[in-house]
Structures are given as C-alpha cells and as structure tokens.
Amino acid sequence: MGYPDLYILRHGETVWNREGRMQGHLNAPLTPVGRAQAERQGALLAARDLAGFGFWTSPLLRAVETAALALGAIAAEVRTDDRLREIDVGHWQGRLRADCAPAGGGAHGPDGDLSLYAHAPGEGLDAVALRARAFLNDLDGPAVVVCHGIVSRMLRCAALGLHHGAWTELPGGQGNVFHLTGGRMEELR
Q1: Which of 21, 62, 123, 125 could form a disulfide bond with 16, CB atoms 3.0-4.6 angstroms apart?
Q2: Would you say the C-alpha torsion 175, 180, 183, 185 has a positive or negative sign?
Q3: In degrees, to the nearest 5, what angle opens at C-alpha 22 toward C-alphas 17 and 23?
Q4: Could you report the per-residue pLDDT of 124-173, keeping only the tens digit for each?
Q5: Is 124 left (phi over 0), alpha (psi -120 to 50) or beta?
C-alpha cells in the first residue's frame, strides 16, 4: 500500500535515555540536549513546505514536549494518537537497560542494544508493527509524526514496504527527522 508523504520525528533525549533506562510507556522529561534537538527538528521542518500536512504526536510526555518545541511555530493543531506510543516493555519500564540485557548483550548502536526489545515483556514487536501500520492506514493525507524509537522504525518499515522484521536495519538515534516519500527515505540534518 502506498502511503502519503511523511516526516517522522523521534523525541529528543530524555533524562532516562541519558541514564540508560527502559522507558516504554513511562515518562521522563527532555534533557537540555533533548530540547535543543527538538528545536533543531523544528528548524529543519520550517524550511519545508508543509501545506496540507496533518500533525500527530504520541501522547507520552517526551513526545508531546518535543512536538511543542519542534512544531509550535509550524502547526496550528497537533493531534495525539495512542497508536504512536512507544512499545510497552512491561516490568522492564524504568529499569536500567544493563539490568535487562541477556548475558553477553547484543549489538549496540545509537539506540543501545536493540535485541532487548525482542525479549522484553509487555506487548511485543508484532503488536507495535500492527498499530503502526493501522495508524498509517488511517491517514488521509501527508503527515508530520512525533513518536519514539521503536514506533518510528515500525512506521518507516511500513512506509518503505519492508517487513517489520527489518526494523533493526533502519537508522536510529535521538532527535531525528526522516522524510519518507514515494517509497524512499531521507534523514534530514
């Protein structure tokens, strides 16, 4: 299925990101670095023609705070959608990532050990992929979306026509803006 043009933003760095904690559905505020990342996302978007775009955010505090900083001067209205919430990692929420890692851990990148999410209690990756795809299927036009690391990857897999199992192959990091159009992705810097 073809999807409309998308700009997908991951929230800026939070206190818990800096501490190496699993967040899931719990909230932690943005750090000064995270606020600067959100402002940079807004500057990148301000240079784009967003006429006709809808604006969406996860209802979790770190995404709402990022949306306020990044979209406040751009969007007249930013709607929330529960399907954009981060993966629920059950009783791992709030725990240090190192305390959740299996012996030996996995590959580390800008988002830490991604293999943790395949083993986390809670809703599971398949459920996140389903709700991400359902969100995209309900869009009636181009959109700017503020969300989270795992949800961003699942949204991008769907928009790029990839199986959701390819989520670990996509770039990550904090405070990103990805533009997806015509089955292609560009990271804005």
Answers
A1: 21
A2: negative
A3: 80
A4: 999 999 999 999 999 999 999 999 999 999 999 999 999 999 999 999 99
A5: left
Does 14 appear as a known binding residue?
A: yes
In one-letter notation, the amino acid at residue 34 is G
Q: Is 123 annotated as a binding residue?
A: no
User: Span 6-187: which CATH code?
Assistant: 3.40.50.1240
39 flagged as catalytic: no
Does the annotation place 13 within a ligand binding site?
yes
Question: What is the per-residue pLDDT for 106?
Answer: 54
Task: Identify the active-site residue in 11, 25, 148, 164.
Answer: 11
By the 10 Å C-beta count (0-12 exposed, 13-18 middle, 19+ buried), 77 is classed as exposed
Burial class (CB in 10 A: 0-12, 13-18, 19+), 14: buried
Q: Is 39 marked as binding a ligand?
A: no
Spans of all domains in the chain: 6-187
State how beta strands 112-113 and 108-109 pair. antiparallel
Catalytic residue among 25, 65, 86, 148: 86
